[in-house]
Specification:
This protein is an all-alpha fold. It has helices at 7-39, 46-83, 89-125, 131-160.
């Protein structure tokens, strides 16, 4: 016996699938950075910093930025088509969190490019540049904030908007 899915329900499920894929991309990339920071914490040589930064740059542009884009676009479409913008306090919280995530992601990306440029310069001159540690720490703090905002929006999305 076949059951037909309405067009509206089909798009709702599609938006939610893209939303979950976006969260997977973002959080997977962030957790890989955490693992790398823990694994390389004691073995910080100029070479390991250089290779770590190349990895971070690639993951940022291949996973995290597309993931944030998927989360934003899916949330906008779900809000527009199904839930409504600012329809209740939980939707407002999720929408504001995602706005802050987008702004923070732009900031992190710009900062990550600077940190990677310093790591490349360190590799070229084979000498540590003190500014690297300061900027890397700022990048880590902004990344942690993004991770917590992503997790909060994911938890709210899962528990408040189940079908």
């Amino acid at each position: 016996m076949e059951t037909k899915i309405s067009k509206n329900e089909y798009w709702h499920k599609t938006y939610r699938l893209f939303l979950m894929l976006g969260y997977i991309f973002c959080l997977g990339g962030i957790f890989s950075f955490i693992v790398m920071n823990i694994a390389l914490d004691k073995a910080l040589s100029i070479d390991s910093i250089y290779w770590q930064r190349l990895f971070v740059s690639k993951v940022t542009f291949i996973l995290i930025l597309p993931g944030v884009s998927l989360v934003l676009i899916s949330t906008i479409l779900l809000s527009w088509k199904h839930y409504g913008f600012f329809s209740n306090k939980w939707m407002v919280i999720v929408q504001l969190l995602l706005l802050f995530i987008a702004i923070n992601s732009i900031n992190i990306t710009l900062l990550a490019e600077k940190v990677t440029a310093i790591a490349i310069q360190q590799k070229q001159i084979m000498s540590a540049i003190p500014e690297y540690v300061k900027m890397k720490n700022r990048e880590d703090i902004f990344g942690a904030v993004n991770m917590f905002m992503l997790l909060a929006s994911l938890i709210i999305s899962i528990y408040k908007y189940r079908e």
